[in-house]
Amino acid sequence: MSYIRRQALRIGAFILLLIAYLTNSILLEFATKYAGKNVPLADQFIGAMLISAAAILILYTWLYQRQLKRYNPRRLGHWAFNRHRIGQLLMFFMLMLAVQVGWSQLIIHHLLPIPSNQSALNGQIRQLPFWNMAYGVAIAPVFEEYLFRGFFFNFFFSKNSLTSNVLGVLVSGLIFGYLHTMSFSVTTLFYASLGWVLAGAYLYFKDIRYSIALHFLNNLWAVI
């Protein structure tokens, strides 16, 4: 199989996995839309979202583990949580927090606009508080880490070399930022910066559970 064909298949597979996640999030958007108008219909969308989220999680986990069994030069896997590693994880979180605080100061001083993604999320939380907060804090981090760290590196930057690691971090962060803004703007750099920290944590800890935990802490901080 030629290199171009392999890459095309990988891009197609990544897009399909991304579509599965986006479709799941759309179900929550519909539930939010009908929350104050048609409660039974909103409940049905929530039920569909939860069932499909469970199915997607099973698929992501199975495929990710299958990929690592086939080719895993970085020795990615499950590494025990201990006091030292938790301390290091908190240092990564402090770095993400510094990015958020610095960006918020630029917004407060009217040097940058409020991210439209955050404004939309705030509106959804007001309409359907529990499920939007639960999704943003507990479900989205898992799916996004599998997509933008796990699958992305396995598909496109699987070699354990300095060039592959650096390019993988940069590109995954940019894609992460773009998909949060759906445009190229200065706000894209904000989300890309968070993506770069998450990608760095993924490669540093060699365990996707750590980047998921870091993403969870970041999103939790954003909604409290």
From TrEMBL:
Biological process terms in GO annotation: CAAX-box protein maturation
Domain CAAX prenyl protease 2/Lysostaphin resistance protein A-like: 128-220
InterPro entries recorded: CAAX_protease (IPR052710), Rce1/LyrA-like_dom (IPR003675)
Pfam families: Rce1-like (PF02517)
Upper classification of the organism: Bacteria, Bacillati, Bacillota, Bacilli, Lactobacillales
The keyword Transmembrane belongs to this UniProt entry's keyword annotation: yes
Membrane-spanning residues: 12-32, 44-65, 86-108, 128-148, 160-179, 185-205
Family the entry assigns: Belongs to the UPF0177 family.
PANTHER family: CAAX AMINO TERMINAL PROTEASE FAMILY PROTEIN, SLR1288 PROTEIN
GO molecular function: endopeptidase activity
Name of this protein: CAAX prenyl protease 2/Lysostaphin resistance protein A-like domain-containing protein
Organism: Secundilactobacillus pentosiphilus
Keyword list, A-Z: Membrane, Transmembrane, Transmembrane helix
